[in-house]
Specification:
Elements lengths: L3 H12 L4 H8 L3 H8 L29 H13 E6 L6 E9 L3 H14 L5 E6 L2 E8 L2 H4 L17 H9 L1 H12 E12 L2 E13 L3 H14 L4 E4 L2 E4 L2 H8 L7
Amino acid sequence: MHPQATVDRARALSGRGLSDREVALIVGVPLRTVRKWRTGQRRAPGRANTKASCPRCADGVTLPEPCADYAYLLGLYLGDGHIVLAGDRSKTVWRLAVWCDDAWPGLIRECARVIRAVRPDNRVSLTQKQGCTEVSSYSRHWPCLFPQHGPGKKHLRRIELADWQQVIVDRNPGEFARGLFHSDGYRGFNRVRRRWQDCDHWYEYPRYLFVNESRDILGLCGETLDRLGVEWRFSKPNTISVAKRGAVARLDEFVGPKY
């Protein structure tokens, strides 16, 4: 017999529109079992602790719809975010912080908005730093929502998505890519000089670059671009480049320049 928390979590995922196969993969039970729970042929869900619930440590899933906001915030976190234990360790309260360059005030507002969307009951603070703004929020459940959290720098440890995160990214690849490029990437112009008939001729073209020291995060970016049908290559070991005209136009549909 499976724990009631597993039953409740599976039913909550089904209620968010995930298929029985996706739910079975996430909670680790047979497909037939998930189908019986969804149709009410087995135990009804117990009373979930909605205040403490989250994808990993409680009965239900508190990520509000649309999960596109979470996919975007996940991209920002993998690029420019971190999670630290705040205050007294006995209280187990965590602080999520994302650093946003002051050159992009729209990015700062968007970062604050999606943090509020993901944890609507928690306050979001903006702290001015030298040349950037730190967007932060306190919650007991940030490590649950971002299981990539751990000691040390991201590029020195394994970074991979949990099953439930992969489902969200698969459904919202454009928002995940937008978060990645808005954190550790940019859309700019590459200017090239060509010598022709004893004269220098210059031309420029738009391109995207994503720079990260983590091979795992670079891999997640590349997989997402593949899912979107965007052609890319490594211009450096730590840099993904999207430069072909059609690929840039395609990525523009989802990312676009910072503002």
